[in-house]
Amino acid sequence: MHTTMSKVLVKAVLLLTIGIQSNFGISIAQNIEIHVTNDNTSIPILYNVDRCIPTIPKSEAGDIHKIETNGNCINIYSQENCVGQFIRLQTGRLFKYVRNMAAHRWDDNILIRHENMIVGSIGPCFEKCDPQNWAGMRRDLSTSVTLYDEEDYTGTKYSYSISEKQCFATPSLTTWESIKISGTAATTCVELHDDSTCGGNSVQLRPGYPHLHDIWWWGFYRGQDLAIYAKSVSLCGNTCPAVMDSFSTTTKMTTTSTTTMTTTTPTTTTITTTPTTTITTKPTTTTTTKPTTTMAMTTKTNKLEEPVINMTNQSRLHVHEKLSDKQADEKTSSVWVWLLVVLAILFVLGLAGFGGVYFFQRYRNVRPLSYQGRYNVMYKLQSENL
């Protein structure tokens, strides 16, 4: 109880702090910071993410410690030049970074923790309804999604089986703090929405994304409100015109689905991918099944033929031939700026010194003679008279 209350208090303080920061505009627009090592003395590398960053510097061990997004939505590619599969990283207002580059996924009921994320290049996110966001996703396959009201896949949970155009409104619990998604990153993509109709702001998640065990780190696109306040869940692109136009209009309403609410302590067999260490825990589970009536959309449709976009051709639009020249020009311009600043400072100091000497001389010329000076003059006159 005390642990839960302390967590709530800490997060409330963090939310207040982030709110104050956002009011003062502390985050830097369109810039991200890459920390190569876990060293407080090292200087992070600053990048602009309005275009592709084709290569990313790494430590001697080939790792990256932390990426600070500053509220920007970024695609993290495993290959260089922003091609191939990517992780769509969309942080919220609370945590604006990802560190240790560790991802989570499920292999059936076995949790694979701390898989190493390969960072080959970074680019800006595609727009919400850009088909590249869900390239390769299988809408004809049913995806199992389980939401938990506590971190690390514990607490009260609600499970959904989603396919095609289905949208499920979530129960009005306070927060959803972790999510389990079946399938693979290549074939599965799920969206959490900030309204109950699967519209509005959303965040896209796939198996193998970081912080699925703690979705306090994720935020809704644009508004950046926290993903823990999700009110509905669907497959990716559910309300996008390109997806909606691909479905037929023949739908049939059924009320056959049930929702299972389970309160559980950590119930998973965990595999940690750090050197051959396997940890197996036997859970104790208390299950209460509440019969609930959930409206499920069973849609008879023509099979959605989503072409797998050629990521190479599309993404290379972000890599310009003049990238290196532009970066060189930016470096040259920054050098001139610093040089002009130094010259301006020297000019001001010189002007101040000259003015000080000038006014001091005028002060001495107009100052009346002191008593000692007048005495010396009188003494000299008397001596001449004698």
From TrEMBL:
The keyword Membrane applies. The chain crosses the membrane at residues 335-360. Residues 1-25 form the signal peptide. Residues 258-291 are annotated as: Disordered. Gene3D superfamilies: Crystallins. Keywords: Membrane, Signal, Transmembrane, Transmembrane helix. The keyword Transmembrane helix applies. This is Uncharacterized protein. It comes from Folsomia candida.
